[in-house]
Amino acid sequence: MKITRRSALVGATSLPFAAPVATRGQSKFPDHAIKLIVPWAAGGPADAGFRILGESVAKKFGQPVVIDNKAGASGVLGATALQNEKPDGYTVSQMHMSVVRQPLLNKSLTYHPIRDLTYILQITGYVMGVVVRADAPWKTLPELLAYAKANPGKLNYGTLGIGSTQQLAMERVGIQQGGLLWTHAPYRGTADTLRALLGGEIDFASEASGWAPMVQAGKLRLLAVFTAVRAKRFPDAPTVKELGIDVVVDSPGGLVGPKGMDPATVKVLADAFRAAAQEPKHLEFLDNMDQPLLLLDGDAYRDAMAKTYDEERELLRRLNLLPP
Fold first, then answer.
1. 184: helix, coil or strand?
2. Residues 277-318: tens digit of each pLDDT
3. What residues contact residue 58 under an 8 Å CB cut-off, 6+ apart?
4. Which of 48, 65, 139, 156 could bond 54 through an S-S bridge, CB–CB 3.0 to 4.6 Å?
5. Max alpha carbon distance in the chain (Å)?
């Protein structure tokens, strides 16, 4: 008797333990595509780094990792989208400091950055520093701070926005120096800030490493970096902490998912992204972007962000930046 495809399928489904049912019961995570939300525009540094990670993780899992760019709203659209997703691990998002800070600054954001997310893995951070024009009279950060102390309110400095990591880092320095008075000038982005610095609109900038090409070209002078250790490409620039000011800002970022994820699923994702983060292609990307590798497991990552959340709430209150 000739067995047709139709009769074979009918026969298979009539068995008491049909193969498809067993396969479903034994399926392991992941068994289909993972959506990775990047809350920035395509083509930017954060997008590029996570695309490298996504390609590596997709190869490991044998499943696609689809990048979903959700730009705007100060980078919180990933966190807000996760509030409506199932905690099954198939939708995750890039995590960064604005996700923690923006709910403090914007009452319309109803998610809690610690309680309403599952922390999977901290991956990397950013090099931020204080830069002046090459012809500026200050050769070191202590010289700049001494001038600010002797001339209250005379200096203007730029960052990429009110309440930004860069502004808070500089204000922490000012507080530790006894309460320095200077004027903060917010700009729309690092490029705008550096153009203003070169054009003489501001005296110095507290910014991420977008200044690197201008420092290397001799147009800007890097006075100090906020990271825990010196930047690889700028070993002559001291850290702020080395100068006796207890301020360290790495602006860490990583991977989060919806609230309530299964710890086993979290581990699968964390292990895959941890391995991807240490592959040569990603490490080369980090070096080119002056980004340190700051791997931290999910529980420790969450605890660090909880501490940061409390510290930033107090700092924003002190600076009168909290909404009424």
1. strand
2. 999 999 999 998 889 999 999 999 999 999 999 999 999 999
3. 64, 65
4. 65
5. 100
Q: Give pTM, 2 decimals.
A: 0.82
pLDDT tens, residue by residue, 242-255: 999 999 999 999 99
CATH superfamily of 128-243: Periplasmic binding protein-like II (3.40.190.10)
% of the chain beyond a pLDDT of 90: 81
CATH 3.40.190.150 residue spans of the chain: 32-125+252-318
DSSP assignment of 258-303, as one string?
ETT--HHHHHHHHHHHHHHHTSHHHHHHHHHTT--EEEEEHHHHHH
Strands 204-208 and 156-159: parallel
Of 268, 284, 298, the residue nearest 62 (C-alpha): 268
Strand partners, 177: none
Neighbours of 40 (CB within 10 A): 21
**Per-residue pLDDT tens over the stretch 99-110:** 999 999 999 999
CA dist 177 to 184, 211, 244, 260, 324, Å? 17, 25, 10, 43, 28
CATH number corresponding to 32-125+252-318: 3.40.190.150
